[in-house]
Amino acid sequence: IKTSKFELCFPQLLNSSCRKLKRSRSEIVLISFLLCFISLTTVSLNLLVIISISHFKQFHTSTNLLILSLAVSDLLVGLLFLFQIMLTDGYWYLGDRMCVFYYALDIIITFISVGNMVLISIDRYVAICDPLHYPTKVTPKRVQVWVSLCWISSLFYDIVLLRENLKHPGKFKSCSGVCVIEGGFIEQVADLVFILIFPITVIVVLYVRVFVVVVSQAQAMHTHIAAVTHKRTGKATAKKSELKAAWTLGVVVVVFLMCLCPYYCITLSEQDTLLNNLSAFFVICLFYFNSCLNPLIYVFFYPWFRKAIKIIATLQVMKSKNYFAVLMK
User: Residue limits of the G-protein coupled receptors family 1 profile domain (predicted)?
Assistant: First the structure.
């Protein structure tokens, strides 16, 4: 059975097959190429972030450990794009278990990304609003503990949210060729609160406070810049570095929120539109594309990251005696 707009996903299953949206061959090739390019770019850029922060010990700061955690989750998003490439034909053909695995990975990555953004907001809040106690309150070891708790909590949250789908894969699908999951009312409310409302509220409140302090400090520095002595120059430079980090990570957070909100509107309203609705497909890809933008923001704002990329790309990283001097130039 065929119509002018739809055809069956599995023609041999006349009574149980879903219908898929017909797309031209050129459209499928174009979408697949773009998704492959974005996936490769996302994985490559975030891999550079991971290598840079992991390899250079001078980058093992509390803030950079949070960036490292975010880069790992962004790298997983790049790999998740491979599933989106398989959906360009408009139907799911990998089976029910892989469908649940896809959604489970998607939920874990979303939870971790949101958690990382909250931790980054807390880090910047303490660094700017309570700078004297920042070195003792936010230590690398404490950050490692909080990041670990974030990843562990994401796994626990995922298991609880998808418990019925994990027990009975494909239980909620209406026909063959569709990939859907479903949760109860309590799960949907919990998802809305813990992934959207609570994190965004915390992020917005903290960053409003941060930027109020940043603006006041910037005005104070500008007013008294002529009176700064040589002895205080180091402190002023350190404060300027903290302010720049706040602005940079503020851009990361704002871009993340701009990509998260449309994505969550789609996933909360109609999850089954993922395969057949092109606008929903675009919004979901927009959220994933945020993971490609984060490393580009670091390149634009962080000179140390640009130098680290140069060292890695030119293989100077293999010369243990020279790379530190090059990095500090």
Answer: 45-298
Which whole number is the average pLDDT over 243-267? 74
Looking at the DSSP bridge assignments, the partners of residue 6 are 21
Q: Which domains does the chain have, with CATH numbers?
A: 25-327 (1.20.1070.10)
Burial-class residue 70 by CB neighbours within 10 Å (0-12, 13-18, 19+): buried
- Using alpha carbons, list the distances in angstroms from residue 168 to 100, 160, 163: 10, 14, 9
Rg value, the chain, Cα = 23
Phi-psi region of 17 (alpha: psi -120 to 50; beta: other; left: phi over 0): beta
For residues 213-230, give the mean pLDDT.
61
| CA atoms within a 13 Å half-sphere pointing along the CA-CB vector of 231 | 0
Question: At 43, is the secondary structure helix, strand, or coil?
Answer: helix
Q: What's the length of the chain?
A: 329
Mean pLDDT of 29-42: 85
Residue 324's alpha-carbon distances to 54, 314, 319, in angstroms, are 14, 14, 9
Q: In terms of pLDDT, which residue wins out, 282 or 23? A: 282
Spatial separation of the C-alpha atoms in residues 71 and 49, rounded to whole Å: 7
Is residue 144 very low, low, confident or very high in pLDDT (cuts 50, 70, 90)?
A: very high
- Residues 6 or more apart whose CB falls under 8 angstroms from that of 66 comprise 116, 119, 120, 123, 143, 147
Report long-range pairs for 307-314 (Cβ below 8 Å, ≥24 apart).
308/48, 308/52, 308/56, 308/59, 309/48, 309/52, 312/48, 312/51, 312/52, 312/55
User: Which residue type occupies 254?
Assistant: V
pLDDT band of 320, cuts 50, 70, 90: low
Please, which residues bridge with residue 8 across strands? Answer: 19
Closest Cα partner for 175 from 9, 7, 51, 327?
Answer: 9
Q: Alpha carbon of 99 to those of 7, 10, 24, 78, 214: distances in Å?
A: 22, 17, 25, 18, 45
Q: 96-129 and 140-161 are packed helices; what angle lies between their axes, rounded to 10 degrees?
A: 150
How far is residue 116's CA from residue 296's CA, in Å, rounded to a whole number? Answer: 18
The whole model's pTM is what?
0.79
Average pLDDT for 177-186: 71
